[in-house]
Amino acid sequence: MDINDIEWRVTPGLTDYSAALAEMEARAADVAAGRARELIWLLEHPPVYTAGTSAAAEELLDPRFPVVDAGRGGRYTYHGPGQRIGYLILNLAERGRDVRCYVHALEGWVIAALAEMGITSFRAERRIGIWTRDPDGREAKIGAIGVRVRRWVTMHGFSVNLSPDLSHFTGIVPCGIADYPVTSAAALGASHTMATFDAALALTSGAFVESLTCSRKIET
Fold this sequence. Notes:
Elements: E1 7-14, H1 17-32, E2 39-44, E3 48-51, E4 67-69, E5 76-79, E6 83-89, H2 99-116, E7 122-124, E8 127-133, E9 139-150, E10 153-161, H3 194-210
Parallel strand pairs: 1-2, 3-4
Antiparallel strand pairs: 2-6, 3-5, 6-10, 7-8, 8-9, 9-10
Helix pairs in contact: 2-3
């Protein structure tokens, strides 16, 4: 399969998180049963804190927004306006059944898309997600990765901070990592719209799909 076999959906405005989660789970079941095409879904949410399967109660510092059990791996994360969310419903049974390869490819896709916009980002050893340098030179998180795989079909995906209110992240310990700040494209002085980032994702999507089946050792 190539990128043209996958449905590409962009939903304008803000989509309720619980409604999106229900739709994503239904679509994943249909993909697993062969009733629907794979899907890459780009959207935004109203402010919400989501809890992964490893979320620790003490990392929810100030639940000023709704808190929803996401069912994905990982800990607490924040979603809100100004953050591009990418949900991927892909059939890994057709792509080597390698979850580690999938996560690595997903990180690489976001890094490549950010590079198209002039933002240098990278992986960090033992820290899942997308990292960059803030204006003070510190390593800072600009994107999060959280996935779930059921019957070899993926759910959830990535979130990338374009211009969210970064103070909203202070209600949690983002992804359980307290030692590094969170940043955004806007905080780095890069003014990009959702459409700009979506175009960068589309431009680099073919290479992402090609990388989903790993045939060699992954280097970190």
